Amino acid sequence: MELLENNIIQQKLNSLDTLPEGYAPSMSSKFELLMTAAPAEKKQSKWLYFIPAGIAATIALLVLVQPDTTSVDFNTQHYAGRLQHTAVIAAPVQITETPVVAVKQIRTKRTKQVSPAVQLAVAPAPVHQPEEVVVAVDTTTLLLASAPVVPQKKIRFTEVDFDDTPLNAPVVVQQTTTGKQKFSFRFNLYSTAAQSPGSQPTPVQFRKNF
Amino acid sequence: MKPFNQHQIEQCKKGDRAAQKHLFESLYAPMFRVCQRYVVNTAEAEDCLMRGMMKVFQQMHTFNYTGEHSLFMWVRKVMVNESLMELRKKNNFYLMPEETVHELPDQSDVLQQMAAEDLYRLILQLPEGYRTVLNLFVVEGYSHKEIAELLNIQESTSKTQYMKAKARLKDLISINDKEMYGTLGK
After folding, report:
1. Which of the 8 DSSP states describes residue A184?
2. How many CA atoms lie within 13 Å of A77's alpha carbon, on the beta-carbon side?
3. What is the pLDDT of residues B20-64, one digit of tens each?
4. Å from A32 to nearest chain B CA?
5. How many angstroms separate the CA of residue A54 from the nearest CA in chain B?
6. CB-based contact, A38 to chain B, within 8 Å
7. Per-residue model confidence as pLDDT tens for chain A (210 residues)
């Protein structure tokens, strides 16, 4: 029954091939409107074709053009300079201060080293000196290992002998006490204050802030 | 269904203006009816029709002639798709909430005697969701699975919407029959 009903509905609706009552458009004007609208669509589609083509050509140019050799040299020099700098920094460290201070120095210097992966990937063969870098790291490790093991305690003060001549480059040491009171001192800095003519410049300027 | 022979279609493909105009005028009325069965509003149905016709003429070179009614069926499919796009664009395609579907007596005799124009008018009175599913299932011959894919709904939803559409249409037919003849069906 349902199928019969559906067939009747389908036949009746498909048999309607005339316009509804009260609706009588001008066929000629509608057709002209359609024909004038069609070329406008074609023009738009032309632009839609050229824009992706331009984008594709730009991407192809960017991908296919080889990089300039001068830029490679610049990068090589840049990394070579970094490597040399690293070699200087990674020189064997003489531990003259207390072990705690020496460990701080080594930690600070090791962070400045270029990682071996970057050296191998970027640096050219003639400039690259991996042996020196590796030796420097090993020396540091050995020195660390040979340093006397002192149980770590909370350091409340640091002894400074003002008669000692500084052996290393200027080192800034900061120590925080348990009371959150900071003091700092700097080696190998001469006082900029006016001095008497006969007096020797003080090799150490000590500043404290208790 | 309007029959078209292969020569007419080839002329249209070549861009013969007279052949294109003949095709346009022949298809305008039946295709307007197709569009209006989905979107109801006359102006919107006209817009759908014009957009569909533009696509037909632009894509005519892709059409393969398989019989004298093949062009008519192809154009009708284009119009249905345009109408569904119009419904989605308006974003007012919604399905009616669940409600109990009560059984109605068979009305095939009433339908048989009913004028096509009256039936068309009653279908336009159906809610949008009911009307769309009914049109796609009964008139266009889509399966519930295809309707579910077209409308992005569940297959079971399509079935229930169709059942409710039929029930509502029978109600409308009964009311129309009562108004016309003073009886409540047969």
Report:
1. E
2. 6
3. 999 999 999 999 999 999 999 999 999 999 999 999 999 888 988
4. 9
5. 25
6. yes
7. 778 888 999 888 988 888 888 888 888 889 988 888 876 555 566 677 788 889 999 999 988 886 665 555 555 555 555 555 544 455 555 555 555 555 555 555 555 555 565 555 555 555 555 555 444 445 555 555 566 666 666 656 666 666 666 566 555 555 555 655 555 555 554 544 555 566 565 555 555 555
Residue showing tokens 């022979």: B5
Long-range own/partner contacts, residues B99-102 (CB < 8 A, 24 or more apart): B99/B164, B101/B160, B101/B163, B101/B164, B101/B167, B102/B167
Contact B36 A20 (CB under 8 A): yes
- Please name the residue of chain B whose CA is at the shortest distance from the CA of residue A22: B42
Query: How many cross-chain Cβ pairs, A to B, lie less than 8 Å apart?
Result: 84
Q: What tokens does A148 get?
A: 């006397």
Which residues, at least 6 apart from A179, have a Cβ–Cβ distance to it below 8 Å? none
Any B CB within 8 A of A1 CB = yes
B120–A15 CB contact, under 8 Å = no
Q: Tens of pLDDT along B87-132?
A: 888 765 556 555 555 666 677 788 888 889 999 999 999 999 999 9
Select from A2, A5, A10 the residue whose CB has the most chain B CBs within 10 Å, as the one to mutate to test that interface. A5
Residues 6 or more apart in contact with residue A38 via CB below 8 angstroms: B54, B57, B58
Distance from C-alpha of B31 to C-alpha of B51, rounded to nearest angstrom: 12
With CB atoms and an 8 Å threshold, state whether B30 touches A4: no
Q: 3-class SS at B161?
A: helix
| Residue in chain B nearest A40 by alpha carbon | B54
The closest alpha carbon to B134, from A9, A4, A15, belongs to A9
Pull the structure tokens for residue B138.
Answer: 């009964």
Q: pLDDT digit string (tens) for B73-99?
A: 999 999 999 999 998 887 655 565 555
| Closest chain A CA to residue B32 | A19
